[in-house]
């Protein structure tokens, strides 16, 4: 039984680290503009399918993945330009729904190009079973965990150490003041969208390596990333990361011990309980409301 | 003063014929009664009935989002609860249709009240997530509870509406029956929004803190509006089930909730006739797109993006709900230069970002 627990925990960590990677990019946009980005998942779904097509046409692996990530970032830029900036000053529900519109468009294009069936992602690494004491672990899970953690680390470094990353923090606190300080606000917003798409596609590729690629994975990812952000606290990198890991581990434990059919239902129920207990997320700060 | 004038007109028996609203009502009623005669075929008639079924959904979504400012995306679950309740009651227990209809609304209403309590505790985005979560839980339960719902296979053979010995089987009889139910819903919603309740809701939407400082019991009104909205969503679900003679889980996904939200927004948040228009457009457009159904999602997405950029407040909406994007034309908004500040963007974003998760609609 203990081996089973450990196995589920490692499963959960691997999938949770992917959720975390998808969530950090999502959380940056969320924290900065306060917009629920419903298109995030479909951007990374599109990028992941792109990576798959490139890999199947024998483009070298690193180039294919890098190219797909850049395409994901570029789509993020297009979405920002066409669907967000024109309605940025409208009520919040408007950019949220225009994002849904963009998500529909990309979902439809992906459907037309790649069809609606579920496809296995090409194998990038040979999988072996590693014997660790009594527990057998799939080497793929270890690789995914390592890759997701290091990519999230890189993202955190970019956010905390580079000039652009610091500008992002500034813009998310106060836009007019940032503008007065000489920060190009629009470019910073574009940067965040690009980074969100880029790291989202990276997460999407890891996700497909664990499961498979299908059209619906985009929407699934949007919801997982959103839940991770809300559990962890909006706008906080650390929060999104921990939220993603928590979500992954609890999902693995639920499907391992309770019921895999009701996994998502129970996960949503848990999120609702968490929200009732901590209305601002576990790591979120309470923001007093201006009157 | 304006009220006084109105009063005068309505008291004078002759001047009622000079009032354009009177003639509009007469013509509207005449068209509605003659619909079964003028509609060329059954196919279009069924689309019209589908629109009538969806109007209560758009109205209740508008009430929750447009009047109270809560971004609920769980209406599809109440829709589904209504559909399953009334078909199961009629098929398994032999409950007469009027009672089944009422009970389906009441059950949805109870779930709505239950959902509204945790929602009271959290801010806007969290509320959205909670309602989506509720919708997903409903969907997963319906999909997996084989004994009750037959899961993905759905429930075929739902009987048509029946009062006493009259069975509403022909499209035109269903049309008049549903038209009267939807008309009742519109009447209730209209009376509600034009009463002190409606004004309290608008106050909550515009500034919740100020509203509660003025002595409005915000929690009470929020629970009430959730109850009202889910009741009519349940009724609408019941109408759908007995019209299609089938219920399946695929009808009640998040996409359906998004569609209801689109109806309310497209027509205009805070405008009741707008919701009717929104429902009419969004139910009939996919039927027009049917020959090119591979592109249906694409066209829907394009329509949404373009409409929202062109008119963020919706076709019949008031600009107070969704602030206008400066005076620039649609094309100019699309291609504004990067460094150029966009109208009153700054002020709005400042307010929005300073209370992420605090309030939904802008309130400065």
Shape of chain A: globular
**Estimated helix fraction of chain B:** 55-70%
- Helix fraction of chain A? over 70%
Shape of chain B: globular
The H/E string of chain A reads HHHHEEHHHHHHH
Defining key terms:
heterodimer, A: 291 residues, mainly alpha, two-stranded antiparallel ribbon, 11 helices, globular, B: 364 residues, ABC transporter involved in vitamin B12 uptake, BtuC, 4 strands, 2% strand, disordered N terminus
Q: Can you tell me about this structure?
A:
With 291 residues, chain A is mainly α. Chain A has one domain. Chain A has 11 helices and 2 strands; from the N terminus they run ααααββααααααα. Chain A has helices spanning 2-33, 40-56, 61-84, 93-114, 139-161, 163-173, 175-180, 185-210, 217-232, 237-257, 263-277; strands at 129-132, 135-138. Chain A has a two-stranded antiparallel ribbon. In chain A, helix 6 (163-173) crosses helix 8 and helix 9 crosses helix 10. The mean pLDDT of chain A is 83. With 364 residues, chain B is an all-alpha fold. Chain B has one domain (43-323): ABC transporter involved in vitamin B12 uptake, BtuC, CATH 1.10.3470. In chain B, 69% of the residues lie in helices and 2% in strands. Chain B has 16 helices and 4 strands. Chain B has helices at 2-11, 20-38, 42-67, 75-92, 97-121, 124-144, 146-149, 171-193, 196-206, 208-213, 218-244, 254-267, 272-288, 296-310, 330-334, 345-354; strands at 155-156, 162-163, 166-167, 246-247. In chain B, the strands form 2 sheets. Chain B has a two-stranded antiparallel sheet. The longest helix of chain B has 27 residues, at 218-244. The radius of gyration of chain B is 22 Å and the shape is globular. At the A-B interface, helix 1, helix 4, helix 7, helix 9 and helix 11 of A face helix 6, helix 10, helix 12, helix 14 and helix 16 of B.
């Amino acid at each position: 039984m203990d081996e089973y627990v450990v196995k589920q925990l490692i499963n959960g960590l691997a999938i949770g680290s992917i959720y975390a990677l998808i969530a950090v990019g999502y959380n940056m946009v969320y924290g900065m503009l306060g917009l629920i980005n419903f298109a995030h998942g479909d951007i990374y779904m599109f990028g992941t399918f792109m990576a798959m097509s490139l890999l199947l046409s024998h483009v070298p692996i690193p180039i294919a993945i890098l190219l797909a990530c850049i395409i994901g970032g570029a789509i993020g830029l297009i979405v920002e330009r066409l669907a967000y900036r024109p309605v940025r000053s409208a009520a919040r529900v408007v950019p949220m729904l225009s994002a849904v519109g963009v998500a529909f468009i990309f979902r439809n294009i992906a459907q037309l190009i790649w069809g609606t069936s579920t496809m296995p992602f090409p194998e990038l690494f040979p999988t072996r079973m590693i014997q660790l004491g009594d527990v057998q672990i799939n080497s793929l899970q270890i690789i995914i965990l390592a890759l997701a953690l290091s990519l999230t680390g890189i993202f955190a470094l970019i956010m905390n150490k580079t000039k652009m990353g610091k500008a992002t923090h500034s813009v998310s606190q106060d836009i007019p003041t940032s503008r007065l300080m000489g920060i190009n606000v629009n470019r910073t917003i574009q940067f965040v969208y690009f980074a969100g798409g880029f790291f989202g596609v990276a997460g999407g590729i890891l996700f497909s390596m664990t499961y498979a690629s299908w059209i619906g994975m985009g929407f699934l990812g949007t919801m997982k990333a959103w839940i991770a952000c809300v559990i962890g606290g909006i706008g906080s990198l650390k929060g999104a990361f921990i939220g993603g890991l928590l979500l992954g581990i609890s999902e693995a434990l639920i499907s391992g011990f309770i019921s895999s059919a009701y996994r998502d239902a129970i996960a949503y129920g848990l999120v609702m309980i968490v929200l009732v207990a901590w209305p601002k997320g576990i790591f979120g700060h309470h923001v007093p409301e201006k009157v | 003063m304006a009220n006084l004038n109105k009063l005068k007109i309505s008291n004078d028996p002759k001047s009622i014929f000079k009032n354009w609203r009177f003639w509009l009502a007469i013509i509207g009623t005449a068209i509605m009664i003659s619909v079964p005669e003028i509609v060329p075929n059954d196919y279009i008639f069924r689309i019209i009935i589908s629109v009538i079924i969806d109007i209560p959904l758009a109205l209740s979504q508008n009430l929750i989002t447009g009047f109270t400012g809560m971004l609920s995306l769980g209406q599809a679950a109440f829709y589904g609860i209504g559909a399953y309740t009334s078909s199961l009651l009629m098929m398994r227990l032999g409950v007469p249709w009027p009672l089944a209809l009422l009970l389906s609304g009441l059950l949805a209403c109870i779930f709505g009240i239950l959902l509204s309590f945790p929602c009271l505790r959290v801010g806007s985005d969290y509320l959205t997530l909670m309602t989506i979560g509720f919708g997903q839980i409903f969907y997963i339960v319906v999909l997996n509870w084989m004994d009750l719902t037959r899961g993905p296979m759905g429930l075929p053979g739902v009987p048509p509406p029946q009062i006493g010995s009259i069975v509403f089987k022909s499209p035109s009889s269903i049309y008049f029956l549903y038209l009267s139910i939807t008309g009742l819903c519109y009447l209730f919603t209209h009376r509600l929004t034009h009463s002190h309740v409606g004004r309290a809701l608008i106050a909550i939407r515009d500034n919740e803190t100020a509203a509660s400082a003025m002595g409005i019991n915000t929690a009470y009104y929020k629970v009430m509006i959730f109850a009202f909205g889910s009741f009519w969503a349940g009724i609408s679900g019941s109408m759908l089930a007995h019209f299609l003679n089938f219920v399946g889980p695929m009808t009640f996904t998040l996409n359906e909730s998004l569609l209801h939200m689109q109806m309310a927004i497209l027509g205009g948040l805070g405008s009741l006739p707008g919701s009717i228009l929104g429902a009419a457009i969004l139910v009939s457009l996919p039927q027009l797109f049917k020959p090119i159904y591979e592109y249906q999602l694409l066209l829907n997405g394009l329509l949404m993006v373009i409409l929202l950029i062109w008119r963020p407040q919706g076709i019949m909406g008031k600009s107070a709900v969704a602030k206008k994007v400066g005076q620039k034309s649609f094309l100019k908004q699309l291609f504004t230069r990067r460094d150029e500040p966009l109208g009153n963007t700054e002020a709005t974003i400042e307010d929005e970002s300073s209370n992420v998760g605090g309030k939904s609609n802008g309130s400065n």
